[in-house]
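Why do we bother with a discrete structure alphabet at all? Because it lets us treat a fold like text: something you can write down, compare, and reason about line by line. To make this less abstract, here is a complete entry for UDP-glucose 6-dehydrogenase. Read it the way you would read a sentence in a foreign language you are learning: slowly, and without expecting to understand everything at once.
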Amino acid sequence: MDMRRVETSRPVLPNLHGHLARSFPSSQSLASSQNSPGASTPNSWAANPWARGTGTPETSPPSTRAHSPELKPKATTEDGNTSPVVGSPDTPQIPKAVKNICFVGAGFVGGPTAAVIAYHNPEILVNVVDLNEQRVAAWNSCHLPIHENGLLKVVRTARDGTLGTTVTLPDLDRAIELDARQPNLVFSTKVVEAIEEADIIFICVNTPTKTYGLGAGSMADVSAIESATRTVAKNAREGTIIVEKSTVPCGTARMIQDILRYHRPETSFEVLSNPEFLAEGTAVENLMHPDRILIGSAQTLPGLRAAAALKAVYAAWVPAARIVTVNTFSSELAKLVANTMLAQRISSMNAVSAMCEELGLGADVDDVSLALGKDSRIGPKFLQAGVGFGGSCFEKDILNLAYLASELRLDAVAEYWLGILRINEYQRQRYARNVVRELNGSLRGKKIAVLGFAFKDGTNDTRNSIAVHIIKDLAEEMPREIAIFDPGCARADILDEIQNSGLTQSQLERIKICTGWRETAQDSSAVCVLTQWKHFRGCQMGRPPKLSGTETKLVDLSLLQAHQHDSPTEMRIRALEDLARREQQSPIEDPLGRLKPLTPCPEGCKDCTLGIGSPEEAETVDWVEVAQMMQEPRWVFDGRNVVNTLELQALGFRVRGIGKGPW
Ligand SMILES: NC(=O)C1=CN([C@@H]2O[C@H](COP(=O)(O)OP(=O)(O)OC[C@H]3O[C@@H](n4cnc5c(N)ncnc54)[C@H](O)[C@@H]3O)[C@@H](O)[C@H]2O)C=CC1
Ligand SMILES: O=C(O)[C@H]1O[C@H](OP(=O)(O)OP(=O)(O)OC[C@H]2O[C@@H](n3ccc(=O)[nH]c3=O)[C@H](O)[C@@H]2O)[C@H](O)[C@@H](O)[C@@H]1O
């Protein structure tokens, strides 16, 4: 590594515009990128594919653009937040009243985020639009397109409105009247109409890694953002605030401004960055109680005013101290760095797990995590070793960040980030290799049972699941059958992922997707646990584990007291519901009877008959029964460290966990 070259390539001033301008393609950089090895392979991060000066995010602004005033001086508050200088001409005025919000993109993020915003702001009409008719139809039915705990109730409350009711509970000193709530959440395909009416538009479309052309396998594909922005540019009212909710390359807000200016040169729009930090499986909880809401804006009067308007929307339920406002590009960058650092923790523990296994001294990665997590500087979260991280975001966002570093000619920095992905790939390959090795180096004639396909528990999302990579590696060993069961995923989604994983026809024919663990484990030589569903811990572990959503909650009495005097916000109604559940000793979803009955599905509704994505109803694995139906010597390869090794060993299983002694 030529450190001197890296040093001298830095601009004299820390000037973002300079960096991005430099990354704009010249004919030379394009040519060298096309010649660079691996530039067109989707997994080209395996070796840094970006030779110095090659490739360019399509999103970068032209180098000739005038510098914008985004980086004006500002004050820093005690909590490190930046805010306009008090009393300066930059102080934002009272934010514009927001009456109508449009979400473009009704996916994993757009749908739940829109629903929670609508839920807490009953006076704002929230339109969620998508080009995908099927997805919109699902949002309008009782079979939402994504499985998230508590989501259906939030959607029903805002989408369908509620019934009025009187609440009388022994703990309340008087009856409380709850008025009927009017619907304020609409899902549709009417993209143009919704954009025309909006005061704020959230762009919430997909930003996958490019799979073609320049930067394939590394650069973010922002074509959906471009396309949505063009529709916004042509149809939005003057003064509408545009919010980039999608995770984007740093500098995208400027690309959005550019498109807006091109189509509407006479009209001014403010573009805000407001990245989303929810994790799938806990989306509603994360949206209801976010660690922080991050809003990036231009540090100009109109920019700060727009940020204040967005802040007011969140302030309906998020405490002000949790709403962080910064400049636009810090916000864009912070999102990529947040995901990269979370993934970095996982890769660190996975690296430790390999060491524990090879040491052969009994060092246990879970013990190491426990010890580390007690250090308040490290904290206990995201230290769980496993088969590696999956999902639609970590990998693409790390690639996105590394690509930016590479474009900035910071090769050492890019390499540093890419190391996280290398460990991730190493970990999952190591797992598959170990399975084959323990089964005497051959899977021929053997059946392998796979428990878990979703990239994590609590979700039906199969995108970029680690399971598909491991199944592919195992399928190459030509087993008799690979049987797969996941309590949360739809069969069609699993099949789709597998069919797109590059298996041959003969390998595909050996794969079977099952509807329960019995059928999966029957006559198998090994069970591979690849998702950390609680169901897989087994009913041997004392009391069956509670599925999330049924826990008895602590009642927030301060909210209840406030409720007796003020208008009932949804936060307060939730506190009332918690109280009612406690008194009824029942975890029912709607203890106050506010929800309107669901419109019945049409006759023969296929989602009703398939029972898609209902993990609450799925049966917990009975390992005693599994032991009886498996082939000797009954291998369990626990890729998530969910089973109780000692108990399973007592039942006659051979158990191998992650980071738990010699393989
Ligand atoms: N999935 C997750 O947990 C998180 C995702 N993100 C980010 O949020 C963004 C969206 O992610 P997901 O919701 O998972 O994607 P998704 O693929 O589930 O949803 C995107 C939706 O946008 C729609 N769409 C695309 N172009 C459109 C257009 N021009 N007009 C109308 N609709 C259009 C698609 O039909 C699709 O339904 C991505 O940038 C992602 O990185 C951020 C935090 C969490
Ligand atoms: O930008 C995004 O899309 C989101 O990405 C992640 O959320 P998500 O991918 O939904 O789920 P995580 O809980 O982060 O899990 C990601 C993967 O890491 C794995 N993981 C997680 C934690 C851990 O300790 N060990 C571990 O292997 C999970 O099993 C899963 O495969 C982040 O946690 C969110 O904050 C972020 O908004």
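What the structure line is telling us, in plain words: The chain has 24 helices and 18 strands. The pocket of uridine-5'-diphosphate-glucuronic acid (ligand 2) is lined by residues 247, 276-280, 339, 342, 346, 382-384, 386, 389-391, 393-394, 455-456 (CB under 6 Å).
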